[in-house]
Design goal:
GO terms for molecular function: ATP binding; transferase activity. By secondary structure, the chain is mostly helical. The chain contains 4 helices and no strands. It starts with 13 loop residues before the first helix and ends in an 18-residue tail after the last helix.
């Protein structure tokens, strides 16, 4: 029972994408034909790009944004379970 929709997954690590493709809950392999396009870059190039992107995010207000959702006494060992901007 293949659908007529074409999902596109952009970004994330290989393990993130594999989780979505192989997880029986999503049944991705059953529902869709898969085509993977990967960009392979040298680690130093990737690190430079990530450094530049983080600098841009900080200049755009990342620190203040995080301060708004940070709860000092919260238990963050299981991640952040707070929806931002979603009713």
């Amino acid at each position: 029972m293949k659908t007529q929709h074409v999902p596109i997954i952009v970004g994330g690590s290989n393990s993130y994408i594999e989780k979505h493709v192989e997880d029986p809950v999503f049944m991705f392999n059953y529902k869709y034909d898969c085509c993977f396009i990967c960009i392979d870059v040298e680690r130093s190039v990737l690190n430079r790009r990530v450094d530049m992107r983080v600098d841009q995010m900080v200049k755009a207000g990342l620190v203040d944004e995080v301060r708004q959702i940070f709860i000092p006494d919260a238990d963050y060992t299981k991640g952040i379970r707070r929806s931002i901007g979603v009713p």
